Amino acid sequence: MRTEEKLVAAGVRAGSEIIVPSFATAEAAVAVRNVGAFPVFADIDPATFCLDPAAVAGALTSRTAAVVPVPLFGHPAADLSALRQVASGRALPVVEHSEPAPASPDIARRRSHAAYLDAHLSGVVTPTASPGAEHRYDSYVVRVLGNGRPDRDAFARALRARGVRCHVPVQTPVHRLPSFVRRTRVPWLPETERAADECLALPIDEVSSLRELQRLVSACNALGGLLPTAA
């Protein structure tokens, strides 16, 4: 069922406010607008990149009609039990938005590659899964520490020069896209902004052998001296 249909089935009416993440694709926010409601953007958990229940609680108003968590990079959509607890005091529905899975079905291989990178990368912050969450690693997204976007972009250029096809997973948070700035109140979302400046997706789906993983690690770690190592 599409997110618009889920919202209508949950009783969302035109003019309502629906809480969504900004560090994601625009699809969930567009779905909210398609039913005549207004997206209200809440901040993310810095570890999982998904909606932070505490930020959701702070974004509630008398017009809030639902919360729409979004799975990201293969991590399930936020801490659903905590979100439902926040929403339960107001009897708000939690309507999960479903993102299409990538074409590659080999989740076990992606998880194996992710585990190798977790153990061997230095100088970047590797992905974190919530306890009990089954991360698909549709994208392997690290944080490049340092001076935000300038250092992340320099790191990406250096990796590409070494033959590593990396990319920035969220170029612009949804709340800063022109079509949403004009129609919604623009919040200050510090964790969202920081993630947009620091995150970089590494190409684990393109890697098919241990030797290629080792080359990827070597390319990244060779740049580690330019950046502070994660604590």
Automatic annotation (TrEMBL):
Keyword vocabulary terms for this entry: Aminotransferase, Transferase
Gene Ontology terms, MF aspect: pyridoxal phosphate binding; transaminase activity
The biological processes this protein is annotated with in GO are: polysaccharide biosynthetic process
Coiled-coil region(s) at which residues? none
**What's this protein's name?**
DegT/DnrJ/EryC1/StrS aminotransferase
- The protein's superkingdom reads Bacteria
Give the matching Gene3D superfamilies: Aspartate Aminotransferase, domain 1, Type I PLP-dependent aspartate aminotransferase-like (Major domain)
Pfam family for this entry, one: DegT_DnrJ_EryC1
